[in-house]
UniProtKB/TrEMBL annotation:
<feature type="transmembrane region" description="Helical">
    <location>
        <begin position="236"/>
        <end position="254"/>
    </location>
</feature>
<dbReference type="InterPro" id="IPR047817">
    <property type="entry name" value="ABC2_TM_bact-type"/>
</dbReference>
<keyword id="KW-0046">Antibiotic resistance</keyword>
<comment type="similarity">
    <text>Belongs to the ABC-2 integral membrane protein family.</text>
</comment>
<dbReference type="InterPro" id="IPR051784">
    <property type="entry name" value="Nod_factor_ABC_transporter"/>
</dbReference>
<dbReference type="InterPro" id="IPR000412">
    <property type="entry name" value="ABC_2_transport"/>
</dbReference>
<protein>
    <recommendedName>
        <fullName>Transport permease protein</fullName>
    </recommendedName>
</protein>
<dbReference type="InterPro" id="IPR013525">
    <property type="entry name" value="ABC2_TM"/>
</dbReference>
<dbReference type="Pfam" id="PF01061">
    <property type="entry name" value="ABC2_membrane"/>
</dbReference>
<keyword id="KW-1003">Cell membrane</keyword>
<feature type="transmembrane region" description="Helical">
    <location>
        <begin position="185"/>
        <end position="207"/>
    </location>
</feature>
<feature type="transmembrane region" description="Helical">
    <location>
        <begin position="149"/>
        <end position="173"/>
    </location>
</feature>
<feature type="transmembrane region" description="Helical">
    <location>
        <begin position="25"/>
        <end position="48"/>
    </location>
</feature>
<feature type="domain" description="ABC transmembrane type-2">
    <location>
        <begin position="27"/>
        <end position="261"/>
    </location>
</feature>
<feature type="transmembrane region" description="Helical">
    <location>
        <begin position="112"/>
        <end position="137"/>
    </location>
</feature>
<keyword id="KW-0813">Transport</keyword>
<keyword id="KW-0812">Transmembrane</keyword>
Amino acid sequence: MSSLSLAVRDSSTMLRRNLLHARRYPSMTLNLLLTPIMLLLLFVYIFGDTMSAGIGGGGADRSEYLKYLVPGLLLMTIGSTTIGTAVSVSMDMTEGIIARFRTMAIHRGSILIGHVIGSVLQAIASVILVGAVGVAIGFRSTDATALDWLAAFGLLALFALALTWIAVGMGMVSPSPEAASNNAMPLIFLPLISSTFVPIDAMPGWFQPIAEYQPFTPTIETVRGLLLGTDIGNNWWISITWCLALTALGYRWSQATFNRDPK
């Protein structure tokens, strides 16, 4: 069997293993998924009229704020679900299964690839579920073409890949699953200080650079522009640059940690 065939076979096995774990222990995924759903319902039905009046400068319109909110919550969903990846990787590292895999005749890279692909698939499924909730309560994207939808979906998948590799690195360096969960909290915290809930120019001047120069904001603005027909500006290439940089960083970090001789 060629090296490529071996890698594909073992990666498929590891992917199946991680998907089985997610199916048998769904509580963490559900708990992380409930956060963006509850925020969506809370901000739309409790704060929606007030927030829309403040953002638009006109009358209260909950449906307009729903349109503004959903793209940001889709990105927050990705950040939430990848925390489960950090915990899962940390469990493998601390419970001894990785040490056992090292002694077996399997492709070394397949262990991480299985985690990454499984997490990306779960993140995409979670995004679809949160998007379905948004549609159910009134979100409509009337100005987006099929190409816009495809571009938005591709960007969300690329962002999920980038955050997943970062989460894998966090999980590998964490001494326990609890520590991994804490280390990955910025993946939920950063969307809260981005343009998810309010525009950047509505924030205090000293805080605007913090919200603007981070990976979530340009990605949110790009997805928002694609789905709502608003101006994207330079956000699309800034977002892609962030995604590629985070993917490369997470991959090198994870590989270096994984290939390090166990103590």
